[in-house]
Design brief:
Helices cover about 35% and strands about 5% of the residues. It is mostly helical. A 4-stranded mixed sheet has the order 2-1-3-4.
Amino acid sequence: MSSSTNNSVDTSVEESQTEAAARRARGEFVRGVSAFRSVLGESPHFPAVPNRYHLFVALNCPWCHRVVLARNILGLQDSITMDVAFPSRTNEDDPIEANRWEFNPRRIATLTGTTLPECTFETATGKQFRLAKQIYEAEGSKEASVPILYDKQKGRIVANESADIVRMLNRQAKVLGSNLAEQDCPDLYPEGEGHAQIRSEIDALNDQIYVNINNGAYKAGFSSSQEIYATAFGMYFDTLEKLEALLASDGRLFLTGDMFTEADLRLFPTLYRHDPVYYVRMKLNGARILDYPYLWRWLCRVYSLPGVGESSSLLHCRQGYFGRSWNNVVPLGPTHPMSYPEAYEHPELAGHPAGPDI
């Protein structure tokens, strides 16, 4: 099960806010807590029905990435609509506010010199809001983050915690209108007494992946204390070593065995970003994922699954992360042994460890 603090924080989902202000003052990056936590199908206000709900996302955001992955892997592209923000936040001269997610498909990416075709206007509220912040303000909230799961019928935010959204999309995939046949639709978090063991394994993996990998990357990259950075750096790579050993132990295809689960989905966005983005931007230059043969082959295996490639955009990631750096210049590499994401189609780049092929 997930570890927790004395105030019952689920550390596989969110970070304890204990002494958050003091920790930030010491240079630690402390992630805030999402406030909208309704559950589709459990709240009478938000029944699980098709064609009613909408996602607001940014493709460079790893928390959004996990939600887009769930939507597409579960076959919900036709029944849950989606708007995509530009990967760079608003500039200092923005007429409303700087450093906010913006739905503006007319913006030019510095990396390409063109607009990004995935970006959209805001289409769900009927008010054509430009900033995600304005969607929250309509409900009296000061939050400004994505992802947002939105009820188009009621004009209300359902949830904005990515872990919750992934779990509810999985639980309600069929009634939400999955376009997949039942035998083809994955179950990311199997429920019922017969699946207690795999849920326990997923919970334990989720905890270490969130604390040390997903959030750990931000602890390393955005903290201003050398000591805090070093601790996060060490925990990040220690966990990669443990995951590499887990995959190598019996040649398993995925983290819990032969079945792709929520644990794999939650690990993928960070490892997808590591070599081309986090190695430099988050100062996580201890090793590449390419240097871990089993993790690399796992990464390529997940990338090859239906729905994963269309959920992922390194162009948005590069523009978004490096667009926030001091000079806004986006690195062009890596190009050796080949460019990314094309490299993810080549598991052989990491050699051929013993075990099954993808």
